[in-house]
């Protein structure tokens, strides 16, 4: 009963690995360590491999055999939206090619249960602020497109065979469940703000004339530990789900504005911050908040943490990382 976690050395994957370890469940990690860190794995077995490489299906087959894998949680993927616009073909090779190889091996080994790391980016710029899973999927960049294509591949494979799949559409993930598992890369608002503070720079606010509570962009920030728990919750319920493929939003159902996030960082870090207003960033919806009632109904999951705890934990993990 081993769970294979691809990308288990990454920010979110490592949280899932640690939860599995705490639950006493056998786990094996596949990661190319391109952005991951073996130090996060707490001794979990690691097979270093690039899932998009030609020999990946065969190598995965050996991992499935050797570890008696019966479920897969697939995180290994690229996530920089900007790079996906500059290098779309490479992006498709990484995210869609990697998943294709994984699916080949999953089908050959007869593994049944797959949880897929998807994204709210599949919705693009919806004209509604609160989206449920039936909202139109119209991604606006190759990153979001690779996530949607991944969902389609898994949906079709699950209909054709015996796979059972849950795709989790993450909203804005932040925070740290353990101080040593913070996100070291400044790619999202919370980590960008912390990074700029350390460099003595003012955080940038991309536009303050949106039709939102204070004019700045509103997102649904979800604690990475809550998100990690969602993976285990859906994995445990896959057998009871009606459809072989289901997509689930993972968010809190509550929105926070850029300025509210900045104020929380100010409080948690004990510094005063004067953000700098700049132009809107193209492609940013004003407000994107999850209707997360489906995952609560089907898997009994709901977020336990709010913005304050997310930011507290992010600041703590950031301090911990810089003190090492
Ligand atoms: C949040 C809000 C910005 C930086 C993206 C991807 C998504 C997922 C998460 C995966 C927005 C504003 C940001 C800054 C700002 N990707 N902002 N100043 O755009 O909601 O989602 O990241 O890993 O697929 O699309 O997240 O954190 O970039 O922005 O004002 O310096 O913060 O305009 O309103 P986003 P984000």
TrEMBL record:
Residue stretches making up the NAD-dependent epimerase/dehydratase domain: 3-251
Single annotated GO MF: UDP-glucose 4-epimerase activity
Stored Pfam families: Epimerase (PF01370)
Catalytic reactions on record: UDP-alpha-D-glucose = UDP-alpha-D-galactose
Species: Agromyces archimandritae
InterPro entries named among the record's database cross-references: Epimerase_deHydtase, NAD(P)-bd_dom_sf, UDP_G4E
GO BP annotations listed: galactose catabolic process via UDP-galactose, Leloir pathway
Taxonomy of the source species: Bacteria, Bacillati, Actinomycetota, Actinomycetes, Micrococcales
Name assigned to this protein: UDP-glucose 4-epimerase
């Amino acid at each position: 009963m081993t769970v294979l976690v691809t990308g288990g050395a990454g920010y979110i994957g490592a949280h899932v690995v640690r939860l599995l370890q705490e639950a006493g469940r056998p786990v094996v990690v596949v990661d190319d360590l391109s952005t991951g860190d073996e130090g996060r794995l707490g001794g979990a077995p690691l097979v270093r491999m690039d899932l998009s490489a030609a020999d990946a299906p065969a190598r995965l087959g050996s991992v499935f055999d050797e570890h008696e894998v019966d479920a897969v949680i697939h995180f290994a993927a690229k996530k920089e939206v900007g790079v996906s616009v500059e290098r779309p073909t490479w992006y498709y090779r990484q995210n869609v090619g990697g998943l294709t190889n994984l699916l080949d091996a999953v089908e050959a080994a007869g593994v049944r249960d797959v949880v897929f790391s998807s994204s709210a980016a599949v919705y693009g710029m919806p004209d509604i602020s609160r989206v449920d899973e039936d909202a139109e999927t119209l991604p606006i960049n190759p990153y979001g497109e690779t996530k949607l294509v991944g969902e389609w591949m898994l949906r079709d494979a699950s209909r054709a065979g015996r796979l059972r799949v849950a795709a989790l559409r993450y909203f804005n993930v932040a925070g740290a469940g353990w101080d040593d598992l913070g996100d070291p890369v400044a790619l999202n608002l919370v980590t960008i703000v912390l990074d700029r503070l350390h460099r003595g720079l003012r955080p940038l606010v991309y536009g303050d004339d949106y039709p939102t509570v204070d004019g700045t962009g509103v997102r649904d920030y979800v604690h990475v530990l809550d998100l990690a728990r969602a993976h285990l919750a859906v994995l445990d319920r896959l057998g009871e789900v009606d459809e072989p493929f289901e997509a689930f939003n993972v968010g809190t159902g509550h929105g926070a504005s850029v300025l509210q996030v900045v104020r929380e960082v100010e409080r948690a870090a004990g510094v005063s911050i004067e953000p700098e207003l700049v132009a809107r960033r193209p492609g940013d919806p004003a407000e994107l908040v999850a209707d997360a009632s489906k995952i609560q109904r089907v898997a009994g999951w709901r977020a336990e943490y709010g913005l304050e705890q997310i930011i507290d934990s992010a600041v703590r993990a950031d301090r911990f990382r810089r003190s090492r």
